[in-house]
Design brief:
Strand content: 15-25%
Largest sheet: 4 strands, antiparallel
Number of strands: 4
Structural class: alpha+beta
Radius of gyration: 14 Å
Shape: globular
């Protein structure tokens, strides 16, 4: 498996989920099978092959449109996807209490 200089893997056969943060409020989001973003980790799709390339293309477009930030791939390998960081993100993170003006979801869902 090789990595591009930007940290994303070029081996599209490795199974991954895509995660990012919404740009306007920093909420952790996950890409679904229909290439939309959700706050629910259980709805995140696992991508490989051509579908992974299509998911990355959509994510890159969302980055360019300033909808998301901090995009990265999480390998589904039983190690990285079970790390403390990923468990905190999947639980809705952060591990600290946000400021009072950020404690309510202004989006009403996804």
């Amino acid at each position: 498996m090789t990595e591009r200089r930007d940290g994303f893997m070029t081996d599209f056969e490795t199974k991954v989920v895509l995660t990012a943060n919404r740009l306007d409020d920093g909420v952790v989001i996950w890409m679904t099978a229909d290439y939309r973003w959700t706050r629910d980790r259980a709805e995140a799709a696992e991508f490989t092959g051509d579908l992974r390339a299509m998911a990355m293309a959509q994510a890159d477009a969302d980055l360019a449109a300033d909808q998301i930030t901090a995009l990265y791939e999480v390998k589904i390998d039983g190690i990285q996807n079970l790390s403390a960081r990923e468990m905190i993100r999947a639980a809705g993170g952060p591990s600290v209490t946000p400021p009072i003006d950020r404690q309510h979801d202004h989006h009403g869902g996804d």
